[in-house]
Amino acid sequence: MMDTVIAVVGTLAGAVVTGLLQHRATARTERAARREREEREWLAAVTELARAVSAHRAAMWALRHAELTGAPVERVDVLRDASHATRGAVTGPAVMLRLMTGSARLRVAAVAAVHATYGMRDAVSVADLDARRQRALGAHDAFVDAAVAALPGGERR
To answer: What is the CATH number of the domain that holds 109?
Structure first.
């Protein structure tokens, strides 16, 4: 009788331990999958913001250059419409990145890259426009460097 009780208790204990181990393994797998998904989303937000800022910088340069060099009004209007579209494309990735990153350095660098690009509209001459473009390029590079430093997992792949 005692042998039967010990066998039943042993079987139940084995089932409980197996269940707990399986639960832990499943939870670990789910955490790893979630972390991997979040890293992909974070990387997508960074790259989309970098792409959008680059596109807007090019559009702003074309618009201000046309305005400063006396291009026809029709040409300026087309370029202005293009710059409005590219500016609108910056907002979504900028917000997404702010929501997804815990890095204050990355948030500051992202804002600086965006504002440096927006600042190109205030150029008063072609030389000033070129200088502002160079500042925007530098801010963009600093943003990318901050993103590398803030990469989830702490390492560059």
So the answer is: 1.20.1440
Long-range contacts of 146-151 (CB under 8 A, 24+ apart): 146/103, 146/105, 146/106, 146/108, 146/109, 146/110, 147/46, 147/50, 147/106, 147/109, 149/103, 149/105, 149/106, 150/101, 150/102, 150/103, 150/105, 150/106, 151/43
Domain count, the chain: 1
pTM for the structure as a whole: 0.78
Structural domain including 112 reads: 39-149
What tens digit of pLDDT does each residue of 20-60 get?
Answer: 778 787 778 888 888 888 889 889 999 999 999 999 999 99
